[in-house]
Every structure is written in C-alpha cells, then in structure tokens.
Amino acid sequence: MKANRWKTVERVFNKSVNLPPEKREKYVLSACNGDSALLEDVLTLLAEAEKSDNFLSEPIFEVGAQILASEYIGLFDEPNFSKYEVQKILGRGGSGVVFLAKDTTLERNVALKVLPTALADDDERILRFQQEAKAASAISHPNVAHIYGFGKADGRYYLAMEYVEGNTLRGLLKNKKIDKIYALDIACQITKALSAAHKAGIVHRDIKPENVIVTDDGLVKVLDFGLAKPFPAQNEEADRVIGHSLDTKPGMIIGTTAYMSPEQIRGQSLDSRTDIWSLGVVLYEMLAGRRPFTGDTASDVQARILLSEPDYPFEIEEIPKVKKMLVKSLTKDVNLRYRSITELARDLEIIDKELNGTTKNNINYSSSIKNSPSNGISPNNKVPTEIKYKFVEDEISETIENSEKFYITYKFLIGGITFLIVIIVLVGLFY
Questions:
Q1: Domains in the chain, ordered, with CATH?
Q2: Catalytic residues
C-alpha cells in the first residue's frame, strides 16, 4: 500500500471512528464514493476497533497501521536488519511493530521499532518518527527509556531503544487493581520521568498504561515520545533539540481517547498540564481497576471527559488525600489543575510516606501484597523493594523483642533455681 493510499484510508477511518454508529455507515459510503478497495480497508479497521479496545488505547490518528504487520514477516528471514538481528515481536502499535533484536556490534539486546514500508514516503510520519527519537534522546533520566539510534535499512525506518525487561502497566492491570502503595510508587516514578521531560521543555501527550513498563524489581520506564511536543512558544532549547514539531491544525485530535485531557479533545494548545490529567487517569485506573471515563465509542468517551465527573469508588474514597489529589488532577478547568508535575509529585510523596507509615504498623506485607488477588498485584507477584525492607525491619524488631522476653524469663528461672538450692542446703545444715 502506497503512502498516499494509506493517508486516504486513515483520513476516512479517523473521521468515521469518532461518529455515532447510526451516522458512521452513511459517512463511510459517501467518503469512499464507490471505491470498493477503500471501503474494504476502512471497514477492516472499523471492525478491528469495534472488537477490541484499540480505539481507546491507541492514538486516534494512528490506529490501524497494525493491519500492515504481515509485511514484517520477511525481517525474520534476513540474517541482519542493518546491524540488528531480529528475534521476535514484542508488540504492535499504530506507528509500527516493535521487535526484540540483538545489536550485533555492541552485543546487547535492544527494542527495535520499525515503520511499515507503506509509510516510507510519508514525510509527515517520518518526521514524527524522528521527533520521537530526538525528544526521548534529549531526556536523560532513569525513568525514561534510552534511545540508541535512528536510521533506515531496506526501505524501512527504524528506531533502536533500550530493551526494558518487564511488564507494561497495561499487562499488570489486566482485570485487577494494583495495591495502593505500589500504585502510588509507580505514579511517583512516572512524575519523575515527566518532570525531566517538562524541564527539557517537552510535553509527552500520550501517557497511558501501554507506554509504561515496570521491571521485576519495581523500576518504572516511560516509553513512546511519538506525540511529544515542545511547550508552546516557551522553550527555544526544546525546539532546537527536537526540531519544530508538526503543527497541529485547530480542532485536530492528537492523543489516546481514554487518557486525553479536555483541552486535548478540543484540539486546543497544550502544555504540561495535559500530562498531569493523563497521569491522573492512569492512577485512578490503577486504584479502581477501571477508567474514570468509559463509553461504547470514542465519541461517547470524549463526551464524558468533557461533561461528566468521575465517581470515586471505595478504594479511593478511603484515602481522602488521594481523592483530593485525583480531583485536582482531573479538573476540567486547566487553570484549577496542578500547575506543574513537581507540585503533583510533592503531594504524591507526602501521601506515599503517610501510607507507608500506617501500613507498616497494621498490615502484614508478605500476605497483603504477595499472591493477593483481592488486595492488588505487583510484577510477577514480587513485593516492591521498599516494602521488603519494611517487612524485614518488622521481622527484626519482632525477633529482638522476643529475644529480650526470653532473656528476662531465663534470668528469673536461674534465680529461682539458685534460691531453691540455697534453701535446701540451709535446711540440710540444721538437720
């Protein structure tokens, strides 16, 4: 499929997927104007969106490129793709397929994101791909996946990045809530990644569970800066590093439906506070096990984001400070939201410390977090490092306390036996 053809498919699909079902069919038939091949491609994408949650978890303007994934099969038959040895598919997304590959020069594993050849002549998509590489490489932080290289081989553009072994946050959320202490720790680490991005003058614009990986030891990595953009008219350094970002036309929707801020849905100018909204949605989902704004179609979800307030389940209501923080993060009026990610991070850390202190005194960590479907999950049923330390500390304190009790009992016992022997000796002397 040629780039121009794909743009036509994408344009019709993007417009139709946001229409109510009763209006969608009429629009598609009209837009395709008798082109049966175009109609078939658009209907295929719509069917994919309907049968899965992709239309809520993929950027709207990119949904559907994954149907081109079959063209990647040949990569496994090639001895090397550039200097990389392709091993297996890690995931498919709107902008291409991500592979586990081995860098044959440096002898290390990398995550290799490859654009489909259908987009090789799409200047706009290639520029966006380059911006992803430049934006992520401009941020040096432990909670951001590192970029190793960008290039083109065999007619395909690719992006080589740090391979992070672990689970996506989406994978951890499958039909489960996450323990509140672990959820807050994940959110704290995401704020650190976003703080580094915002200090570099870059807004992510697509924070969601699919773009967060959690390693087995609890380290969080934020991925995919494909929609990243410099702050509007405020950071010349970011413009210099990642280049002028693609202009977003007024009213153009850029982002992922379920995690979009109201201003994002309206196609307005965005700053760091849109990331704060998206992180609020992610934290809500971790604690409640569901998203705050749901609906049968993308347009339903957008309407709820713009017009409705989320309800807060017991898991959130039971911690008033967490609810207050979420209410402030999910305020529709951007001027009433947290002014910066640093401000949100400060509140998160305060709540995290308070909950750690409370939990330490009242909860057995090994039973409440490890292997507990009712109380939450952590990767591979492992207890987060900081919780392990607290549990060990409690165990040591209990052991010391028991030892002291035993020592005191032992002293009294020896003293009693000694006293009894003295009495017996004295009685023997008199008789």
A1: 3-162 (3.30.200.20), 166-385 (1.10.510.10)
A2: 206
